Every structure is written in C-alpha cells, then in structure tokens.
Amino acid sequence: MKISDLVQNLPTFLKELNISIDFDEETLKRSQPYLSYTILMEKISSLFSSFHSHDEHYETLYVLEGECQYKVDDKTYNIKKGDMAITFPNQMHQIISTTPSKRIVTMFVPKFLNRFNTEITNFDTVFNLMKEKEIFVISFSQNEMEKIENLLLRMCKTINSKNFGDDLQYTLSFFRVMLLISDHVLNKTNLNDKNYESNTIIKSTIEYINRNFKEKITIEELAKEIAISPSYLSHVFKENTGVSVLQFIIKKRLSHAKKMLLEGKSIMEASIESGFKDYSSFFRSFKKEFLITPKDYIKSSSLSYID
User: Fold this and answer.
1) Of 209, 217, 216, nearest to 272 (Cα)?
2) Alpha-carbon span 90 to 1, nearest angstrom
3) What is the DSSP string of 39-55?
4) Residue 93 β-bridge partners
C-alpha cells in the first residue's frame, strides 16, 4: 500500500473500526506530497489487522496507554506503554490490540528522513543497523519516555495547525524523535555510529574498486557512488586502512598484474588489462611496491618454479 492511498483512505478506515483520532481530514488533504504525518489514535479496544506492508514508507507506533501485539516477519512482540514498534518499507507486519490502548503512529518516506543527513549524522546508518540487527521494537527508559512523548504529542498538535512556524515545529520535533531513537539504538547495540558508518563506507568502496579497477576511477565518482563527499571518503578510508583510496586502487591493479604475469601474459598485456594506461606508470608503481622490475619478477618466478 502506498502512503498516498493509505492517507486518503484513513478516515473511512478508522470510522469503520470506531477509532477516534486527533487528526482532521483537511490535514490529510494538505499533507501532499505525503512526506510525513502523525496521528494520535485513542479508544482502541479491539483492532485486528491482517499482515500487510507499506511499499514506500517507514512506520513508528508508540504506545501511550495499554498494550498490543506487534507481529513483524516471523517475530511476535507484546508492546506496552513506553515501547515503540518500527516497521520498514515493504516489511510484512500486523497489529493486534490486546487491551484498550492509546497510541501515536507516524509514517514518513525515506526522503523526509534523509533531508537533514550530514556527514556526521546519517540516519540511513542507524536504520540500516536496526534492520541488520533486527531491532523492530524499542523499550524506552522513563527519562526517554518523557522526552519522546512530549515530542510526539507536539507533532500531533502542530501537524493540524496553520499557525506561522508550526510546520517547522513539526519537522524539528520529528528529527528530535529520530535522534532519540538513534541514541537509544546505538547505545543498546554498543556500536559507535562513526565506526559502523566507517565500516559501511570501507566495504562499499572496496567493492566498487574490485568491480571497476580496470577502468579509470576518480575519488569524485567513487564518493558519488557511495553518496558522501570526496573529502570525507578520503579521510575515512585513510584513517581505517592506512592507505589512500588511490594507493589502494594501485595495489589492487598491481596484485592483478602479478597474477597475469604468472599466467604467462606479457608485461604490456598485464599492464593494460590491470587498469594502467601507460607502461611507464605501471613500471614505476610495480618497482616501488615490490622492489623489483616486472621483467625480473617474471625471471624470479620462472626460476622458483624450476627449483
């Protein structure tokens, strides 16, 4: 189900279930292009939804009062006051009310979440970590509960408002909620945001180089592929591997060239097919890396096979 379809059909759906919400239909009409919306659902005594998924947005469900059962994929969670269920795009899930409850639901598309990503604070990193670690329910501490409930209730209030500044208040509250979620997840998993993000960047960079080392690779196109700045990529890669991106590319090409030389390829063939555009640069790089010329390397390798 798309978020636009869900938003448009929400009033009818809730009326059929006899659920009251602090959300008016005019707001639904004004929520184009359906980047994010938040509703307060009250007087829910019995609600059984079939397994379903949302094909383009995240959903968070925070329990203010009562209890309900949250099923996601093959897992079942009993959630209560202070718990938040988090559903990812295209993830099969189901909500079953077990007691009268009151909850706040927020739905948002990834581009709304990502609009304020920075090199230091990247929400994709946190949500990817949550999915990888299968963190689908968060149980907040008492201190966290007070903060997040105030923010969620403010979101419910401001999304209906036409007052000057309330649209920005909604957005600010939304991102403060995302920061609280992020802090909780990173502390719970004992993983540092920067370390996890760095590992992801290194992995993506090396995978790209392994696929494309025979072609010309620039730091700019590499950074664009990973969606970070060239300077940040250079910094993270050197800090974690001890070599620059360019040095790593050259090492990869030289390693491939050595393999080709051992397979009987000529020096020129090995040079070109490993991504070097001219023989002189290949010769200099090879001798600097292995302290031997390509020709002498072939000779020494042949002697070692004879021995």
Assistant:
1) 216
2) 9
3) EEEEEE---BPPSB--S
4) 52, 72
275-301 pLDDT, tens digit per residue, is: 998 889 999 999 988 898 999 988 887
- Return the number of other C-beta atoms located less than 10 Å from residue 181's C-beta: 22
Return the DSSP state at 71: E
User: What pTM value is reported for the model?
Assistant: 0.56
- DSSP run (H or E) holding 106: strand 101-108
Is cis: bond before 33, omega within 30 of 0?
yes
Cβ-proximal residues to 251 (8 Å cutoff; 6+ apart), any chain: 243, 289
Report how far residue 154's alpha carbon sits from residue 190's, in angstroms, rounded to the nearest whole number: 30
Beta pairing partners, 231: none
β-strand partners of 64: none
What would the two tokens of residue 266 be? 């000529």
Contact criterion met (CB below 8 Å) for 100 and 85: no
